[in-house]
Amino acid sequence: MVLTFEDKKRLKSFEKKLGYKFKRKEHLKRALTHKSFANEMRMPSIEHNERYEYLGDAVLELSVSHMLMERFPEHPEGELSKLRAAVVNEAQLAELAVKIGLGDFLYLGKGEDGTGGREKPSLLSDAFEAVLGAVYLDRGFKKSFELLARIYDSILERAGGVGFVKDYKTRLQEVSQSRFKEVPRYKLVRTFGPDHRKTFEVTLFINGESLGSGTGGSKKAAEQEAARDALVKLETAPYDDEE
Fold first, then answer.
1. Which of 33, 113, 137, 172 is least surrounded by CB atoms within 10 angstroms?
2. How confident is the model at residue 243 (pLDDT cuts 50, 70, 90)?
3. Considering 53, 129, 138, 167, which one is annotated as catalytic?
4. Is 229 a residue of the active site?
5. Catalytic residue list contains 57
6. Which member of 53, 57, 90, 229 is catalytic?
7. Could you read off the pLDDT of 60-81 as tens digits, one per residue?
8. What is the distance between the terminal CA atoms of the chain, rounded to a whole angstrom?
């Protein structure tokens, strides 16, 4: 992979945001190259970031599992699994990607870029994992673990708090049953996108009224987003307890 002067300048800026300097910059460019860009530029299929994402997912899961075991030595496996699910998911990874400005540095096709690809949670979370895969290939597991330990330190600090592992759906159900004596109902509205990367859209109803909507790379992720949307609305709306 040939790197132009503009590539090197762009990648150097991202390295500063990430806090890691690559020995081989081509690893980073590949991690930031979305399939849409590779297709548009007629690049070989191995030049986009999906293989790096696959590797980074494994690095992330092992690293976070290790960190959780060290930080919470008394927690049984079940509790550790819940904590890991709470800190390793599309929403959390997308949030981390936004913090380091990852979307600004992605190589996207014109169509993907024009439809808000730089802000899509699924695309950002995938790219974040691809960057981890690139770090692993560049300098091994130790360096990728050190990077993740720094990024995840404050998140894992909060993970010890009461109620941290409660997901949006669980929290909404508690609020809904307390306030309305009713459980939320989720309806899949539509799916769109290519078969290998479908997006699901869900609408949430309480007492027959639409209170939230969400999209995600899976039906479960879309339901979580819909629950989050509903929680925000319920928490900001006035509530009179007639009892």
1. 113
2. very low
3. 129
4. no
5. yes
6. 57
7. 999 999 999 999 888 888 888 8
8. 68
